Amino acid sequence: MRRDVFQAIADPTRREIIDLISQQSLNLNAVADHFDMSRPAVSKHIKILMECGLIMIRQDGRERYCEPQLQKIREVAAWAEKYKTFWSQKLDALESFLEEENQPKS
């Protein structure tokens, strides 16, 4: 199954994993210790993040470390940016409407 960055960030656990390792590289056990779920469940989340290109695993001796590869997040930012203008215009129009409605009637 082909996965993309949007599927990866759709899950709150995966977003939290991204947040954790964006601050510092952590070994797999350290990542799993932050969650109230089984290590195999955390491993599945990490696997999806790897498949989407958001993290990589670096082997250092016997330890495996998760490291961020957050360039793919730019895809999400670029996608969301397209809608920023649209929503800004809609919110500006709403603000104008509400100001007109709150004007005293003469």
Automatic annotation (TrEMBL):
SMART domains: HTH_ARSR. Keywords: DNA-binding. GO terms for molecular function: DNA binding; DNA-binding transcription factor activity. InterPro entries: ArsR-like_HTH (IPR011991), HTH_ArsR_DNA-bd_dom (IPR001845), WH-like_DNA-bd_sf (IPR036388), WH_DNA-bd_sf (IPR036390). Pfam families: HTH_5 (PF01022). Residues 1-88 form the HTH arsR-type domain. PANTHER family: TRANSCRIPTIONAL REGULATORY PROTEIN. This is DNA-binding transcriptional regulator, ArsR family.
